[in-house]
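Table S5 (text form). Sequence records supplied for joint modeling of the four-component complex.
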Amino acid sequence: MENFKHLVESYDGKLTTADRDLISIILSEPSEVVYLSSSELAAKANVHASTVVRMARKLGFEGYPDMRKSVRYDVDQNSGFANISQQRRTSIAHGSNLASLVEGEMAALAAVLNSVSQGQIDEGAQLLANADVIYLVGRSSAEPLMVHLNRRLRRAGLRVETLLNLQRRDMAERLISLQENDVVIAFGFQAPISLPASFEALIKHAQLIGAKTINIGDTSILTVRPRANLTLSVSRPDEGAMQLRSGVMIVCEALAMTLANKNPERALLGLESLERLRSDMQGE
Amino acid sequence: MENFKHLVESYDGKLTTADRDLISIILSEPSEVVYLSSSELAAKANVHASTVVRMARKLGFEGYPDMRKSVRYDVDQNSGFANISQQRRTSIAHGSNLASLVEGEMAALAAVLNSVSQGQIDEGAQLLANADVIYLVGRSSAEPLMVHLNRRLRRAGLRVETLLNLQRRDMAERLISLQENDVVIAFGFQAPISLPASFEALIKHAQLIGAKTINIGDTSILTVRPRANLTLSVSRPDEGAMQLRSGVMIVCEALAMTLANKNPERALLGLESLERLRSDMQGE
DNA sequence: AAATCTTTGCAATATATATTGCAAAGATTT
DNA sequence: AAATCTTTGCAATATATATTGCAAAGATTT
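The corresponding C-alpha cell record, covering 568 residues in total, follows.
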C-alpha cells in the first residue's frame, strides 16, 4: 500500500524543484492524477511535459504511463469508503491515539456549526473591518490561536497588538493606548486556568473608551459580565482533556477569511507591503 | 448520479449484441473501465475497437474518450470520498465561509489517517522520550504549531528550545549547543515560502552530532535530503489556500499524548514543578 | 569571470489511441 | 433465391500522448 509515497521517500537521488512540485501534486490529489496525461499533469504543476517524463524515469518507472499505473494502483487500494471506515474502526480498537484524536476533533468541528453562526462571523468581521488597532488578549493556552490570528490579520493589512499572559499591572500599562476605534479580542477558556487576568475589568475599560470587544473561547465566556459586543463561544461535545482548540481556531480563520473578502483592497495592500518589505530586507 | 446507466436505460435506438456485451462490461466493472483505452475495452468484450467507438457515438457521446469521461464521473461520485468533497463544494457555493471551512478541515483530518500511522507516532514519541533537549525549528507559518507543541512538551517535563524564523547565521549560533542526545523537530510547508532556511544543512549537522531529527509538515518534506530519522508528512485533500494546519496540529498532539502515556512519572514531575513554581510566584 | 554542470523548455520524433471508409459476412425483407 | 439492410473487422488515417536530442538559461564550481 502507498507504493508511490514509499518510493519517493526512499528515493535518494537528486530532485529538482519541478520534481518536488510534481510529487506534491501527485501525493495531494492522486485521484485526479490517475486520469491525467503527462502534459495535463505538467500543466497542473506549471512545468513542461518532458519534466514529467523525466521525473517518472528518475523514480525508476519505465515512463509516464508506468508511473501513472502505480498511482492508479495506490488510489484503487485506498478507495472504497468501506476501506476507510474499516481502517478507522480497527485503529480505534487498537487503542490508537491518533485515530481517536482525529475522531474527537472531527466531532468538535462538526459541533462548531451549532455554536457559532455565519451571521456572528460576519458581525465580527465588520467590527474588525472598522478597527484601527486590534488587541489580542489571552493566556498561554490561547497562544497558538493568538499567533495564528495575529498573522492572518496583519496579512489583511490590519494593525495588531498581542497581549499574552500579562499580569493586571502590565496589561493596564499596555492598554493605556486603547482608543475609540480599536477592537479588543479576548480569548477565554475554562481549564486549567480560566480567563485572562482582569477579563472583566478589561471589557469595562474598553466600553468606557468606546472601543469594541469580542470574546472568543469555550462556554465559560458566556457568563462574563459586562457582555462583550460579540461573544463567540464554541462548545465541545466532550469537553474533555483535549488541549486542541480546532473549533476555536476555525472560528478565527472564518473571521479572517470573511474580513479579507470584505476588504480585498486593504488585504492586497497588506500583502504588497509585506512583499516589498521582504525584498527590501533580502537586498540588505 | 449513475449517469451512464441512466443513459443506457433511456436509449431507444437499436443496440447490437456487441453493444450489449460492451455495456454489460462497462456497467459491471466500471472502475476497471475508467482506465482502459478503446481497444483494451474492445479486447475485454471480444469486439473490435471500432465497435466501441461506434457505440459511444450511438449513445450520444462525442467519441470514446467522452464516454469514458462520463464513466469516470460516475465512478468518482460513488467512491465515498467524493461524497464529502461534493458536500463541501455545495456549501461553498452557498457562500458560507464557516461551514465550508468546517467541511474542509474535517476532510483534512480524515485524510491524516491515510498519511500518518500510529506506528510512526509511537516511533516519534520514543525518540522524544529519550531526548535530552528538544529543538523546534520552523518559519512563521508553523509558529502556532510550534507554540502548541512547545507547551505540551514542557508540560511533559521535557526541555524545549524554539528556533523560529531564524536566518542561517543565527540558527547556526543557536544550534552550537546541540548534543548527541538531543532531538530536532523541523517543520516544513510548501506555500508560500517553503522550508526553513538551511533545512538540509540542519539535518546534516544533527546527524553529524548524532542527534535525532524529526520532520513534520506537508508533502513537500518528503523530498528533503538527507532524510530525517522520522518524517511525518500530512497530505491534504485539497491543498488549497487554507492556512490552517489542523492535520499537522493533531499529529503533534498525538505525539505529545503518546509521549505522556509512555512516561507518566516524568510528566507528573513536570506538572508538579509547574504547580510549585506557580504557587511560589503567587506568594511573592 | 570563466568553466562546468544542471535543469528545463522547445521542437522533432516515436508511439499509442481513436476514428472512419470500405468491404465482407451475416441478417432480414421481398 | 435475390435484393437489401445491418453489423463488424480491417486497414488507412487522424489525433493525442509520450519521449528524446538539443540548446538556452541558470546554478555551481574553479
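Note: The radius of gyration of chain A is 24 Å.
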